[in-house]
Amino acid sequence: MYLQHFGMGQLPFTLTPNTSFFFGLAPHVEALQVLQTALETGEGFIKVTGEVGTGKTLICRKLLNDLPAQYHCAYLPNPYLSPKELRFAVAGELGLNLPNKIDQQQLTRLIHERLLELNHQGFHVLLVLDEAQALPDDSIEALRLFTNLETESRKLLQVVLFGQQELDERLAQAKFRQLRQRITFSYHLRPLSWDEIQAYIQYRLVTAGYQGPQLFSVSDIKLLAKAARGIPRLVNILAHKSLLLCYGEGAQKVQTKHCRAAIRDTEDINLTERSGFSRSSMLVIIMLLVLMLTIGLTDVSGDWLTRISEH
């Protein structure tokens, strides 16, 4: 691997969300600020959505790591659960020791009692679901019913949903209007601009231990940013492959050919960059073909008229 070649202590562009690499980019900071403000209210649902790879899980882990001591958090990373499985999962996260045989009504009562106990101890209970777009319809309704549990002054449970854009589409359905009205705060993660990606790449290289001159030129970062559509996960993939190719040639600085080769080798990136033709290049090619065809037809028609006049 290229770690020793570039003097790094760890890989800078891994796909695993690592909060030690968290960089205060505007959309991520704004999302955390919305979450912190919403948590202070202590009520309702909070929703954070974004395209695949925009950093939702990283923000989720950052939130969990930075929660104040008065919060008791139940975290479900894979919520593809039936209503029954969802209740058991929440009970387990709340620390309940359940009997071998228990019906759903008893389970709901025990969860309610546990939430009241935590409330009396001064805890704010938070249920965090990652990949929330995977929740079955019945489980979404079961989740809403959880938030009916309350004291005279506050809700006993606050819910944070992290999900892909499909979550917004599902919640827009009429059957989820009750839950939709309980979403007090929401935030949608946007893609990164090229200058944010420039700062992002440099920060991750330095955090990984790199201390040399700039490895990526401004033009190459713009190339990678366009190909990745501003999505951090794709930026990580392209930057990692570019460094591998650079290392493979024994070079000390990433070159444009390394970036273009990384783009050609990567799925789900900007197809214009992947094919090697920009939109303007394609227009020029089409115009040339039309011109050549016109010239060819003119030559043919002129020759045909000349032959007719000879007869």
Jot down its keywords.
elongated; alpha/beta; 10% strand; 5 strands; disordered C terminus; 311 residues; single chain; 14 helices
Question: What does it look like?
Answer:
The protein is α/β, with parallel strands linked by helices. About 55% of the residues lie in helices and about 10% in strands. It has helices spanning about 5, 25-40, 55-65, 85-95, 105-120, 135-145, 165-170, 175-180, 195-205, 220-230, 230-250, 255-265, 270-275, 280-310, and strands at about 45-50, 70-75, 125-130, 160-165, 185-190. It has a five-stranded parallel β-sheet.
Write the topology of this structure.
Elements: H1 3-6, H2 26-41, E1 45-50, H3 56-65, E2 71-76, H4 83-93, H5 104-120, E3 124-129, H6 137-146, E4 158-163, H7 166-171, H8 177-181, E5 183-189, H9 194-207, H10 218-228, H11 232-248, H12 256-264, H13 271-275, H14 279-310
Parallel strand pairs: 1-4, 1-5, 2-3, 3-4
Helix pairs in contact: 4-5, 4-6, 9-10, 10-11, 10-12, 11-12
